[in-house]
Write a structure and sequence with these properties.
- This protein is mostly helical.
- The chain contains 18 helices and 6 strands.
- It has a two-stranded antiparallel sheet. The chain has a two-stranded antiparallel sheet with strand order 2-4.
- β5 and β6 form a beta hairpin.
- The protein is elongated and about 95 Å long.
């Protein structure tokens, strides 16, 4: 023990950390804050540390490549010793962290801990919540299965609705016009480096402010917050009825943190890791992608909204909510803290909880809409093939073989997810049609690697020639047609003109 003490003294003479650590451990807190209501912040920090450790272990095996990501997760699940358990710990740790941060935010709101002088502490907490949700979403993307692929595509569709900056955001998000290897690399960097680095910095700042400003006292009815007198009143309270954080108050934090770790481990052992499901394949449209648990309410909400309400809900709603959370300390920085005398605050929390819980429950019954019941084996209407050339018949065969009619109709027969293929050429030139299949866009995945140049060109010609046979329809004139365009094709940019919605195309989450 003497040797250990001497080593500790040697380091302390050079680092000078003993005094700050002792000051932080022994900082006085009001005795009534040693409550089970005050343990969620330390529990969130504990789960975050668990995420860092398990994330580092997973990063040693995970390969952020479009061709290897799915296989590397299979290796973790089935070949690496306890690899499945580490994945399960990381996945369930994510769910627990989101839940605990949300509960902590609600507790702070009900206890009035966002009021003076803790406005900045609250604002940093809002950003921590947003970054926690960002970690949860980017983690789902890294599974790179069917849910991840389609979920990311729909997320990009949401981003594309942002006025003016939408295309730039999508390109920055995906690393190009389609979901590919660059997309996975960017989300890997976000999930492993960018967001965790920001989280560490904001957590340190958050803890520092808690130590400097003190833990919020238990809210007593009638005890009002006044900017002019609060600091002296709090100092007097901790002086008369205070106790050192260690050992008086810390034991409940340690007990609850240990309980949460055991709960995460129990869920990991019993339920196992999340996914991955099938390999990501843009040609498999008969899929029902759903987000992880804490995003299910949004999935259900948008599936039930009318199409005209989707863009406002996606773009305006979140901005209003985040802005309100950020300005809340300045709108209500003084006054009553106790939830017993703040009925509007209590009703707001109850209303939000019931609403989110209801939509989360409905997500289990809300299907990926519309139902994809069209069968690609239905024959192409004979009248559309009469008198066609060999190239046009080859294009019709592409429609059949590549399952285009699961999403689109010909002669009023086929899927309704996208617009009819026998009218698309009214609005698009051949150059625009050719460009679409290779790159995709909107809700349409990229098919450039799944069609040969001849198939591409044939499918494009069929759309234009069929359109010309409709009464009163005339295909748009061609713009300058480059020779290299012959190497690519598209089923039409009609998908780009279609925004995802529950009743016409696809549910957005």
């Amino acid at each position: 023990m003497r040797i250990i003490s001497q080593i500790g003294e040697w380091f302390d003479r050079r680092l000078q950390l003993a005094a700050p650590i002792r000051e932080a451990a022994e900082h006085p807190v009001p005795r009534n804050t040693a409550s089970w209501w005050y343990v969620f912040g330390s529990a969130a920090l504990t789960v975050f540390l668990l995420q860092l450790v398990t994330g580092i272990l997973l990063a040693l095996i995970y390969v952020p490549s479009a061709s290897e990501a799915w296989s590397s997760l299979q290796v973790l699940n089935h070949e690496v010793t306890l690899g499945w358990f580490i994945r399960a710990l990381h996945g369930w740790g994510s769910n627990f962290m989101v839940a605990i941060v949300l509960i902590h935010m609600v507790q702070v709101f009900l206890f009035g801990a966002y009021k003076f002088p803790r406005e900045l502490t609250w604002i940093v907490g809002v950003f921590l919540l947003l970054m926690t949700l960002g970690m949860a979403f980017s983690g789902q993307v890294l599974r790179f299965d069917q849910d991840a692929y389609w979920g990311l595509g729909i997320g990009a569709s949401i981003a594309s609705r942002v006025p003016i900056a939408g295309p730039v955001i999508v390109k920055l998000m995906l690393g190009g016009p389609i979901i590919a290897g660059a997309t996975l690399s960017r989300f890997f960097a976000l999930h492993v480096f960018v967001i965790p680095g920001m989280l560490i910095g904001f957590v340190c700042l958050h803890v520092l402010m808690v130590l400097k400003l003190g833990i919020n006292e238990w809210p007593m009815p009638g005890r009002l917050v006044k900017r002019a007198t609060y600091a002296s009143e709090y100092h007097e309270l901790t002086k008369k009825a205070g106790a050192p954080f260690v050992p008086y108050a810390i034991w409940k934090d340690l007990f609850f943190a240990a309980f949460i770790l055991l709960a995460v481990a129990a869920c990991a052992l019993y339920f196992g890791p999340f996914g991955p499901t099938g390999r990501p394949d843009p040609t498999i449209i008969q899929t029902v992608p759903k987000p992880d648990y804490f995003f299910l309410w949004l999935y259900a909400l948008l599936s039930l909204l009318p199409p005209s309400m989707e863009t406002p809900a996606l773009l305006i709603g979140p901005v209003i909510v985040i802005a309100f959370l950020l300005v809340l300390p300045f709108l209500s920085g003084e006054g009553e803290k106790s939830w017993r005398r703040r009925p509007i605050a209590v009703l707001t929390v109850l209303l939000i909880a019931i609403t989110l819980g209801t939509f989360t429950h409905l997500a289990g019954f809300t299907p990926w809409s519309p139902h994809m019941n069209a069968w690609s084996g239905d024959p192409v209407p004979e009248r559309l093939l009469h008198g066609t050339t060999a190239l046009q018949r080859q294009g019709a065969l592409v429609f059949q073989v590549k399952q285009c009619r699961n999403c689109h109709s010909l002669g009023e027969l086929g899927g309704q997810r996208g617009p009819a293929l026998d009218s698309v050429a009214v609005r698009l030139t051949q150059d625009q049609l050719i460009r679409q299949v290779i790159q995709g866009g909107g809700n349409m995945p990229a098919y450039g690697k799944n069609l040969s140049p001849a198939e591409n060109h044939g499918s494009c010609r069929v759309s234009r020639d069929v359109t010309s046979r409709r009464p009163g329809s005339c295909p748009r004139s061609r713009t300058r047609y480059r020779a290299k365009g012959e190497r690519y094709a598209s089923l039409g940019r009609f998908h780009a003109a279609h925004t995802p919605h529950a009743h016409g195309n696809v549910v957005v989450f």
